[in-house]
Amino acid sequence: MDRDAPLLFFDSGVGGLSVLGPTRALLPNAPIVYAADSAGFPYGTKSDGELAERVPAILGRLVERYAPRLAVIACNTASTIALDHARAALDLPIVGTVPAIKPAAERSRSRVIGVLGTEATVRQPYVDDLAARFAADCSVVRHGSAALVELAEAKLAGERVTVADVHAAIRPMVEAGPGMDVMVLACTHFPLLADEIAAAAPGIAQVDGGSGIARRIAHLTAGQPWPETPAPGRAVFTSAPPTLLARALGAFGIAHVDTI
Ligand code: DGL
């Protein structure tokens, strides 16, 4: 194993940073390539067929270009639809992102939990399976919000995002589940709005998969060599990103931004 071989993070936009953050905390010297398919953004309103074709194709090009040791599909939408296709097409370990329904059900006392994702994620049979396996005695309220994804992108691009905007996006879910005490952030964009969501829905705990995925990556790469010091990470976008995004990327250790 080449010690400089990176971990490749893939999302439609900036959401995967919520998985990159906990991974850097565990593996500070890991070389990072953060890839955003911004030309294909948003994924949450696309058809399953389109994503099942697009995600493995783009991931394949990225793997050829950056020769990562492992790829992370840091996107619930792409994972719930295209993880199996990507694994079948590519010859490297691929870690996916699964809605954290199991830990949410373990934590809920009221037995009413929310699953907040994209429209594409919340309609997946995969989510039915998780709810049936791990939250059979819970009332599981699902809500897909494209607006919340846009708000996360806007926040990281340096725009002002208000609690009222976030409240309007999540209100249908909260109102549909009286007594809800836990919500699953089943889109990687949403932990980037954790403070705004907490202010908009006080008393409802948030659960996401970021730290579990980071532990999985550490487990899969245990014993592999890493550089002796942290190297600056790089990001690659499939269309030009907003200029002010560079500041947010810098906070995640990303110093170079390319467009391909
Ligand atoms: N970050 C993505 C997810 O976890 C999707 C956002 C989008 O492109 O709609 O589902």
Give a verbal description of the structure.
- The protein has 260 residues and is of the alpha/beta class.
- It contains eleven helices and ten strands.
- It folds into two domains: 7-97 and 211-259, 3-Layer(aba) Sandwich (Rossmann fold), CATH 3.40.50; 101-208, Rossmann fold (3-Layer(aba) Sandwich).
- Helix content is 43%, strand content 18%.
- Helix 2 packs across helix 3 (76-89) and helix 4 packs parallel to helix 6.
- The radius of gyration is 18 Å and the shape is globular.
- D-glutamic acid is lined by residues 11-13, 15, 41-44, 75-77, 117-118, 121, 149, 187-189.
Features:
260 residues; alpha/beta; Rossmann fold; 2 domains; 6-stranded parallel β-sheet; 11 helices; 18% strand; globular; binds D-glutamic acid
The number of distinct β-strands equals 10
**Unreliable stretches, pLDDT < 50, 5 or more residues?**
none
How many domain modules?
2
Bound molecules: D-glutamic acid
Strand content: 15-25%
CATH-defined topology of the largest domain:
Rossmann fold
Rounded mean pLDDT is 97
Give the fraction of residues assigned to helices.
40-55%
Instruction: Give the CATH level 1 class of the largest domain.
Output: Alpha Beta
The sequence of SSEs as H and E is EHEHEHEHEHHEHHEHEHEHE
How would the global form be characterised? globular
Secondary-structure-based class equals alpha/beta
Spatial separation of the terminal alpha carbons: 26 Å
Helix count, per DSSP?
A: 11
**CATH A-level architecture of the largest domain:** 3-Layer(aba) Sandwich
Radius of gyration: 18 Å
Q: Widest sheet: strand order?
A: 4-3-1-2-9-10
- How many strands, what sense, and barrel or not for the largest sheet? 6 strands, parallel
